[in-house]
Design a protein that fits this description.
There is one protein chain. Helices cover 35% and strands 14% of the residues. It is α+β, with helices and mostly antiparallel strands and 468 residues long. It has 2 domains: 8-192, Adenine-n6-DNA-methyltransferase TaqI, Chain A, domain 2, CATH 3.90.220.20; 228-242 and 255-273 and 276-425, DNA methylase specificity domains (Adenine-n6-DNA-methyltransferase TaqI, Chain A, domain 2, Alpha-Beta Complex), CATH 3.90.220. α5 crosses α8 and α8 (192-226) runs antiparallel to α16.
């Protein structure tokens, strides 16, 4: 429990609020520090396009979903904006966007989650332009004639900006943030530092966009070389065979109807007709199947490691639980860079992460991964990690893995079916080409986050130096 004595003068200055948020977030200390700075400070709304009109809450909408990309826009949730891979987001109907143009994003905006977990931020990179986004995300639209957009992001995401944003929240169970709560947030003008921070953030956005492009191109090239066709969501979901089929023979491995879904069997047979190998022959089978049960012991960070759960693993900046490093030794929770991890517990909703693959990079190999993942650690000299991931991240692989589910409410992939999953193989030079694209994409993702870290650190140092 944290205790803090607050004077009546501070309570008066905070509008006589009696909830803890504004007083425990560090916002009071931040405002006092900024007030002492000799540099010019401006209100956020004076630096955004059309004043407070440049801080947008898109407003509630009627969500009409479609499966065919030709009839909609990719739709980012408040979690999606924190992801690097945006290729599997939901699609909202164009009619919904026509009713509310505020849903659409443009590049160089700062995006801030405004409901529930408030204050998580992303810089709208080029690939996000034209996508729709939930009303649970505030859009900060900079007036670029007054301020550089990368600096706005670096400042707001710094340890000085975040407390000022979160202190304005209201609500008991589900907290909220509105534009007027941050309209008068003070923004220090830091001269040349602003241009440097902007360049770092802008370059980070470019590298994240390039990373996503390379990942998608690697998967597309794999399918082209293998002579396979990628699964299309709208065609798969509209296939009437899902309503029922005749099964004349059944494997002794399973009697569950889902495991014999003709749509998924057709995909599996397509891969089986080309040169292929079984997943179980390509990866280290120790801890492959997940289901690792262990006791979580919280610890100070100097003795701890971050535990990434299924949701954390897909985020650019996971915010997992810090647990004792010693307590998990020998459990196989920490995996090497190049490992593909696949959530192995979940439900069958189209927007769920269950059965989707993500790649462990050099940066994310610092984390421990919970027991709720299949761990695909490629055998050395047998298959390149980037090539394996390029296939497992595909929609075709996702559909195949979903059809391997067992269980009732919570699903789990059947380990025998997973081990027997066919993986297409190519000539060595082609597999190396694809693996190199994925490796480059993984490097760009990690480097982009380093650039963002440098930008926020630069801004924080400048503010600290000005306070002395």
């Amino acid at each position: 429990m944290k205790l803090k004595t607050i004077s009546s003068a501070i309570i008066e200055a905070e509008g006589r609020r009696l909830d803890c948020g504004p007083y425990m977030s560090g916002a009071i200390e931040t405002r006092a520090l900024l007030k002492r700075l000799s540099v010019k400070k401006e209100c956020l709304q004076d630096l955004t396009r059309h004043g407070i009109g440049g801080i947008i809450n898109a407003g509630r909408i009627s969500r009409v979903w479609v499966d065919d990309p030709a009839y909609g826009h990719p739709f980012l949730s408040s979690t999606d904006i924190l992801h690097s891979d945006l290729s599997n987001v939901s699609i909202i109907a164009r009619s919904a966007v026509r009713q509310n143009r505020n849903l659409l994003l443009e590049k160089n905006w700062t995006l801030i989650t405004r409901s529930g977990a408030i204050g998580r931020m992303a810089f709208a990179r080029a690939e996000m332009a034209g996508m729709a986004c939930t009303e649970d995300v505030l859009r900060i639209i900079p007036d670029e004639s007054k301020i550089l957009p990368g600096y706005i992001f670096a400042y707001l995401s710094s340890r000085f900006g975040v407390p000022l944003i979160t202190s304005g929240t209201y609500g008991s169970i589900i907290t909220h943030l509105e534009p007027y709560h941050i309209a008068n947030l003070p923004v220090p003008r830091l001269g040349k530092v602003e241009a440097s921070a902007h360049e770092l953030v802008y370059n980070a956005g470019q590298e994240l966009t390039d990373s996503s492009r390379l990942m998608n191109e690697a998967t597309a090239k794999l399918f082209e070389y293998a002579g396979l066709s990628e699964s299309q969501n709208h065609l798969f979901l509209s296939d009437d065979r899902r309503h029922g089929w005749e099964q004349k023979s059944a494997s002794l491995t399973s009697l569950r109807a889902l495991n014999f879904d003709p749509r998924s069997i057709e995909l599996k047979e397509a891969v089986s007709r080309v040169r292929h190998d079984k997943l179980g022959n390509l990866v280290d089978r120790e801890n492959f199947e997940g289901h690792i049960v262990f006791k979580r012991i919280d610890a100070d960070r100097e003795h701890a490691i971050m535990l990434a759960g299924q949701r954390d693993a897909f985020q650019l900046r996971p915010d997992g639980r810090w647990i004792s490093r010693k307590s998990i030794e020998g459990l196989g929770l920490q995996v090497p860079a190049g490992t593909t991890v696949i959530p192995c517990h979940g439900t069958l909703g189209e927007s769920e992460l269950y059965c989707r693959a993500t790649l462990v990079t050099d940066r994310t190999s610092q984390y421990a991964y919970s027991g709720d993942f299949y761990r695909c650690i490629p055998k050395s000299g047998v298959i390149a990690s980037g090539y394996l991931y390029a296939f497992l991240r595909s929609r075709l692989a996702f559909r195949m893995i979903r059809a391997m589910s067992t269980g009732s409410k919570q699903q789990y992939q059947h380990p025998v079916l997973m081990a027997n999953m066919p993986i297409p193989r190519l000539e060595d030079d082609k597999e190396s080409e694809i693996a190199s694209m994925v490796d480059r994409a993984a490097y760009l993702r990690d480097h982009a986050l380093e650039l963002e870290d440098q930008a926020t650190a630069l801004v924080e140092r400048a503010i600290e130096a000005g306070d002395r």
